[in-house]
From TrEMBL:
Transmembrane segments: 32-52, 73-93, 99-119, 174-198, 204-225, 232-254, 260-281
Keywords, in A-Z order: Cell membrane, Membrane, Transmembrane, Transmembrane helix
Protein origin, superkingdom: Bacteria
Family membership: Belongs to the 4-toluene sulfonate uptake permease (TSUP) (TC 2.A.102) family.
Location(s) in or outside the cell: Cell membrane; Membrane
Protein name, entry field: Probable membrane transporter protein
One Pfam family named in its UniProt record: TauE
Keyword Hydrolase recorded: no
Organism: Brevibacterium picturae
Lipid bilayer topology: Multi-pass membrane protein
PANTHER family for the chain: MEMBRANE TRANSPORTER PROTEIN MJ0441-RELATED, MEMBRANE TRANSPORTER PROTEIN YTNM-RELATED
Main location: membrane
């Protein structure tokens, strides 16, 4: 019972992060399950089955708060399903260790770009023009879905990072759309694991505990996405991208545990400082906007 309570808390924490920043449910949950000695395929399967419920509740919550771009979700759904199913059935036997550092390097660079893009605005409001198209979303869905099944996480890091860096959707709709489309990805991955492992290979108690915690956190996370300003949300998500992928790259290069810890501590301190800075900028912008509106009215009236 104690283990199930701990797993429930893991699901709650993972979904709170994922639902707020568009990534990390699979990565957080799978990492902790592997650390507990659970086999990779079994851990990934349990995470995917729990995600069917958590992503459904998360999608409903994000829709309720207006965080979903349904055109983006509709284009992402099929390639995400196909990629996740293929990753669970045909690709689980492949060794993805060689490709992981390269993928992490690309995501790390995009994470840095996301932060730079929103910091470079200064006091100006971010603008988002158009929607991401089929040429971007289809390959992104296939790759993100496959990586999600192979490594137990990848839909959020690939999807959220790519859409944020494209600058075509405001951050809250990026997070909401990725979280909502993750339901289809979770179904595809889960069906693939049933084919590959059979129902006896699924740890249903683990999936259930993660599900309960995730369902509790999903509405809270969607509300946070609704109220957070675009620049603060984008920098928060960019920091998670950088921290996650910096750790992967450092470990792949053979860095020791103390070295990795120091690197992450420095990056985390810089990330928190940037969030504080973004909050300060947002407050200054909100104070000056009423003055600008008053000035415009006076000019128009004269």
């Amino acid at each position: 019972m104690r283990q199930l309570i701990v797993l429930g808390f893991v699901g709650l924490l993972a979904q709170l992060i994922d639902g707020s920043l568009g990534m990390a449910y699979g990565v957080t949950s799978t990492t902790l399950l592997l650390a507990a000695g659970i086999a990779p395929a079994t851990a990934s399967a349990a995470v995917h089955f729990s995600e069917i419920g958590t992503s459904l509740v998360s999608g409903i919550s994000h829709h309720k708060f207006g965080n979903v771009d349904w055109k983006t979700v509709s284009i992402l759904a099929i390639p995400g399903f196909v990629g996740a199913f293929a990753g669970a059935t045909f690709l689980t036997s492949l060794n993805g260790d060689a490709a992981t550092p390269w993928i992490s390097g690309i995501l790390l660079a995009l994470g840095i770009y996301v932060i730079w893009r929103f910091l470079a605005l200064g006091g100006r409001r971010p603008e988002f023009k158009g929607r991401p198209g089929v040429k971007l979303l289809v390959p992104m869905g296939l790759v993100g879905g496959a990586l999600d099944s192979i490594g137990g996480g990848g839909w959020g890091p690939v999807g959220t990072t790519t859409l944020l860096s494209s600058g075509r959707l405001e951050p809250r709709k990026v997070v909401g759309s990725i979280d909502t489309s993750e339901f289809v990805v979770a179904v595809g991955g889960s069906l693939g694991f049933l084919v590959a492992l059979g129902s006896s290979g699924i740890e249903w108690s683990i999936a259930g505990a993660l599900l309960v915690g995730g369902v509790i956190a999903a509405p809270i996370a969607a509300w946070l996405v609704k109220i957070l300003p675009a620049r603060v949300l984008a920098i928060a998500a960019g920091g998670i991208i950088i921290l996650t992928n910096a750790r992967t790259i450092a470990l792949a290069l053979g860095a020791s545990t103390p070295t990795v810890s120091i690197i992450l501590a420095v990056l985390a301190a810089a990330w928190l400082a940037l969030i504080v800075h973004a909050v300060g900028v947002e407050r200054r912008v909100r104070r000056t906007e009423p003055l600008a509106e008053v000035g415009a009215e006076v000019t128009t009236g004269s």
